[in-house]
Write a structure and sequence with these properties.
alpha+beta; 7-stranded mixed sheet; 4-stranded antiparallel sheet
Length: 482
């Protein structure tokens, strides 16, 4: 032990003497570098320096590296590949015990910039690195007279991140950047922060917030872990919390879909016995299909799950299909063909009596709507009876005229066959009109049932759409304000 202590003291004294000699030698330099203080200081620091050795005099003492992180911009968020690209300003500081000098000997120079490749640099990396970013090369570092080394540089970080897109476009993402020494344990290199965690969390001074993403906060947490319960490693984890600005997606995705759904609801006010409603609904369904094809490239796609807005679009299309199906059934119901059976009594009881009371519908409304065209059969029937009476009257007048003239003539050869044919034709016409009138009465009954069912299904459909819209709006407002 005495020999070791003597040997250490001898080495230190020899190293100090060599340094002193080198300083004196540099002070007597002649030429263009004779009065260059920075050149003398650089040569003084580089004499005997070993950049491959951790810069401590006592190997049992660990080197503490203080780091700091400031997010400058969010460049890209790739939901499909689960990759986040950010541009950060990274700073790290540590003490190098071999880069110390007396400022009085070098014209009060207290710091100097020297090439990075000439000094020892800690092997602190980001664990989530998945690609080499286009970071600018900063070839210099600052060294203070007390041995404090400051390595400041911007980094384009391409890291893996677990992105949750279920709340798109009101999603908040939390990605971590873990800094740790890849090789050294805490006995050699330890990690701490330059600033306090609160200052880091609230600092958004350099962030460019003009893009799609907004920086909420940067959380920091220190942790020690071990892989074999023997050697412990230090890590500093920064959680970058960002939030998407939803205005673009609200205007281009949600509002068009809402407008199409409103037009579908307005389409229920078209008369159900007209064919325009079916064509209108089909046009809306085709338009919505084209809309989904256009916005399919805008929605984020992952193999993990589907965003809620995608489910919203699918449900909206399903509602359009249900609306079209309801319209087809109602149109088929109110367009009953001839010779169909009358509306069953139980249907009349449930639909025309119970449902009208439940829906606050008065039957007078349907009577006024459905009574149009009912006067035509009565008009034809009255005309038919008039024609029959007129025919009989003319025949009787002919017979009486023949008797009064004493001619002994009868119209038996002309009047009876002609009048019989006329009467037969009139009878056929009357039977046809009666059948047509009966079929029209049946159609009126089914039309009345169709109107009531249409109002009932429309109100049920409207309640479903309102409940669905209120649920989605509540969820998205909660996520937006969270």
């Amino acid at each position: 032990m005495k020999f070791s202590a003597l040997w250490t003291a001898l080495c230190v004294s020899m190293y100090g003497a060599a340094m002193a000699c080198s300083v004196k030698k540099l002070g007597t330099n002649s030429g263009r570098f004779a009065n260059a203080t920075l050149v003398r200081l650089n040569e003084f620091l580089s004499v005997g320096y070993k950049k491959g050795v951790r810069p401590v005099r006592d190997w049992r003492q660990s080197t503490t590296v203080a780091i700091d992180l400031m997010v400058y911009a969010i460049l890209n968020v790739d939901e499909k590949n689960q990759v986040l690209t950010t541009y950060v300003w990274y700073r790290q500081q540590w003490k190098d015990e071999f880069l110390v000098w007396n400022p009085e000997e070098f014209d009060d120079v207290k710091q100097i910039s020297i090439p990075t490749i000439n000094v020892w640099i800690p092997d602190i990396l980001i664990n989530e690195f998945v690609d080499v970013g286009k970071s600018p090369d900063i070839p210099y570092i600052y060294v203070g007279h007390d041995g404090l080394v400051r390595n400041y540089k911007p980094i384009q970080v391409v890291t893996a991140c677990s992105l949750n897109i279920y709340n798109f476009p009101f999603d908040v993402q939390k990605c971590s950047l873990t800094f740790q020494s890849w090789l050294h344990t805490t006995k050699d290199i330890n990690i701490t922060l330059i600033r306090s965690p609160k200052d880091i969390m609230e600092d958004r001074s350099v962030f460019m917030n003009q893009g799609e993403w907004e920086l909420l906060e940067v959380l920091s947490k220190y942790k020690e872990f071990s892989l074999d319960n023997d050697d412990y490693y230090a890590e500093m984890k920064f959680h970058v919390v960002i939030r998407r600005r939803p205005l673009f997606y609200t205007v281009n995705l949600l509002l068009p879909s809402i407008f199409l759904m409103l037009m579908d609801i307005v389409g229920f006010y078209l008369p159900p016995d007209s064919g325009e409603r079916v064509s209108f609904k089909i046009t809306l369904l085709l338009g919505y299909s084209v809309f989904l094809i256009i916005v399919s490239d805008t929605l984020p796609a992952t193999a993990i799950g589907t965003p809620l807005i995608g489910v919203y679009f699918v449900v909206c299309m399903a509602l359009l299909v249900i609306s079209l199906t309801e319209t087809v059934l109602i149109v088929r119901l109110v367009h009953k063909q001839d010779l169909q059976s009358h509306v069953p009594q139980w249907v009349k009881h449930l639909v025309l009596e119970k449902a009208t009371v439940l829906l606050c519908i008065r039957n007078k409304k349907f009577c006024s709507l459905l009574s149009q065209g009912s006067d035509l059969p009565l008009y034809k029937e009255n005309n038919m009876n008039t024609a029959v009476r007129c025919s009989h009257h003319s025949c009787e007048r002919s017979r009486e005229t023949g008797r009064n003239l004493g001619l002994g003539l009868t119209v038996r050869d002309s009047c009876p066959p002609v009048m019989d044919n006329i009467l037969q034709e009139i009878t056929n016409i009357r039977q046809f009109l009666e059948k047509k009138y009966d079929s029209r009465e049946i159609a009126k009954e089914w039309l009345q049932v169709g109107y009531v069912l249409d109002i009932l299904l429309f109100r049920v459909y409207l309640l479903i759409v309102l409940a669905y819209s209120i649920t989605l709006g509540t969820l998205w407002s909660v996520w937006q304000n969270a």
